[in-house]
């Protein structure tokens, strides 16, 4: 198939990519719906804020801890079937949650048993994430030609952001209207459709064959590759510190209740704002992809992200706070598009799983640690100073990166 450089729908003209996109959207919306339900159910049973905080950590520990091995397995496996296997595991875990949270089970099981089983599912989901992420990353690169990568990444990121926006909202709505059992059934149906979509993709060749090195040595090659590739390392590090310092999401409940006085409904809009901005930006990038001066644009986008986080921190007006979060999300969308394109273009086919695993370790850990950093800073400095401090640190990181990494300043997407 010939490609058209000015065609914003270029990637969508590939049947297998369309199937992949449907699966990615459904998996994202299903898992984010499930996360909302789990959080609500755990708090309903225990009334413990500490356990709410431990939910993300319980999933992150296995996801980050075995990420390198997950990348190694993805590289030496047929990626379509591997992804189908772990999406099937997600589906089974959701079915298990349906049983555990059903009224009849709750009648004879203790609350502690139900919560324990829920956390077991969360932990297993974290394990599955460490394998499904690298498999998905590697598969997406095998279903389209290299010259279509940027278009594909824009649409793929848009599908993920859309699912991330709709998932919590739809999950909460269905939970309130239909109840937990019916909502879990709907999630299972979504994941099942995602599996059928993945079956529309042909099996792909395995591009990596382990040599005489040990599993540990082979898994570590992804880490070595990233640390020896200055452009990839700079991009991942920049994103890591931006999320680490500039993440105000953990403090949004405080803003909604105590600063903006908008309650739970306003909190929902605040939580969705960054993803809304990212979706709009990714749709714009589908029509106007970044080619020239990509490195400088990346630096400006992350610096702008920090500025809007600072403005959000000092705002006491709800509509302006939403605007700041939408703009920070839009600029983050620019960063995500450029970073993902760079990683796809610069990574050899036989190492995509392991490099994706390193990327997920950096970004995944920064999300979790960033929430901890925001909470700790708020406890020490106060909520508003903590958010302002985080935004300022993001801008400082950009300035330092500009001077110490000439490779990122000169980077082009060609």
Description of the structure:
The chain is mainly alpha-helical and 414 residues long. It folds into 2 domains: 8-207, MFS general substrate transporter like domains (Growth Hormone, Chain: A, Up-down Bundle); 224-414, Growth Hormone, Chain: A (Up-down Bundle), CATH 1.20.1250. The chain is 82% helix and 0% strand. The longest helix is centred in the N-terminal third of the chain and has 32 residues, at 15-46. The mean pLDDT is 81.
Residues in β-strands, percent: under 5%
Distance between the termini: 20 Å
- Mean pLDDT score: 81
Work out the radius of gyration: 21 Å
Order of helices and strands: HHHHHHHHHHHHHHHHH
Provide the CATH superfamily of the largest domain: MFS general substrate transporter like domains
In the CATH hierarchy, the architecture of the largest domain is: Up-down Bundle
What level of helicity do the residues show? over 70%
Looking at how many chains there are and whether they match, the oligomeric state comes to single chain
Unreliable parts? none
Properties at a glance:
414 residues; mainly alpha; Growth Hormone, Chain: A; 2 domains; 17 helices
Task: Put the structure in a nutshell.
The protein is built from 17 helices and no strands. It has helices at residues 15-46, 49-65, 67-75, 79-101, 103-108, 111-142, 149-178, 180-198, 215-228, 230-246, 252-259, 263-287, 294-314, 318-346, 352-381, 383-404, 406-409.
Q: What's the structural blueprint in terms of helices and strands?
A:
Elements: H1 15-46, H2 49-65, H3 67-75, H4 79-101, H5 103-108, H6 111-142, H7 149-178, H8 180-198, H9 215-228, H10 230-246, H11 252-259, H12 263-287, H13 294-314, H14 318-346, H15 352-381, H16 383-404, H17 406-409
Helix pairs in contact: 1-2, 1-4, 1-6, 1-7, 1-8, 2-6, 2-15, 3-6, 3-9, 3-15, 4-6, 4-8, 6-15, 7-8, 7-12, 7-14, 9-15, 10-13, 10-14, 10-15, 10-16, 11-12, 12-14, 13-14, 13-16, 15-16
């Amino acid at each position: 198939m010939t490609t058209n450089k000015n065609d914003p729908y270029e990637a969508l003209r590939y049947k297998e990519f369309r199937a992949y996109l449907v699966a990615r959207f459904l998996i994202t919306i299903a898992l984010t719906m499930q996360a909302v339900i789990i959080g609500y159910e755990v708090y309903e049973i225990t009334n413990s804020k500490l356990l709410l905080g431990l939910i993300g950590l319980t999933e992150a520990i296995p996801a980050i801890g075995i990420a390198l091995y997950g990348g190694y397995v993805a590289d030496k496996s047929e990626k379509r079937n591997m992804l189908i296997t772990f999406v099937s595991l997600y589906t089974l875990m959701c079915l298990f949650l349906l049983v555990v949270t059903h009224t009849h089970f709750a009648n004879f099981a203790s609350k502690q048993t139900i919560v324990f089983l829920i956390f077991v599912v969360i932990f297993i989901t974290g394990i599955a994430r460490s394998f499904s992420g690298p498999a998905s990353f590697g598969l997406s690169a095998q279903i389209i030609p290299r010259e279509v990568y940027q278009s594909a990444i824009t649409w793929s990121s848009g599908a993920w952001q859309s699912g991330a926006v709709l998932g919590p909202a739809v999950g909460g709505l269905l939970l309130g209207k239909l109840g937990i059992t019916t909502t879990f059934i709907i999630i299972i149906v979504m994941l099942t459709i995602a599996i059928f979509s993945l079956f529309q993709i042909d099996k792909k060749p395995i591009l990596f064959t382990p040599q005489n090195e040990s599993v540990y040595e082979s898994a570590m090659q992804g880490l070595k590759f990233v640390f020896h590739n200055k452009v990839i390392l700079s991009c991942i590090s920049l994103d890591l510190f931006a999320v680490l310092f500039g993440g105000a999401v953990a403090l949004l409940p405080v803003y909604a209740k105590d600063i903006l006085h908008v309650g739970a409904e306003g909190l929902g809009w605040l939580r969705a704002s960054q993803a809304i901005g990212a979706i709009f930006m990714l749709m714009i990038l589908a029509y106007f992809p970044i080619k020239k001066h990509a490195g400088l644009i990346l630096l400006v986008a992350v610096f702008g992200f920090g500025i809007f986080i600072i403005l959000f921190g000092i705002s006491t007006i709800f509509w302006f706070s939403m605007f700041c979060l939408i703009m920070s999300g839009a600029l983050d969308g620019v960063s995500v598009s450029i970073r993902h394109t760079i990683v796809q273009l610069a990574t050899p086919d036989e190492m995509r799983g392991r490099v994706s695993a390193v990327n997920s370790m950096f970004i995944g850990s920064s999300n979790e640690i960033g929430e901890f950093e925001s909470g700790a800073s708020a406890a020490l400095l106060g909520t508003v100073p903590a958010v302002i401090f985080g935004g300022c640190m993001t801008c400082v990181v950009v300035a330092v990166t500009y001077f110490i990494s000439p490779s990122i300043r000169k980077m082009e997407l060609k």
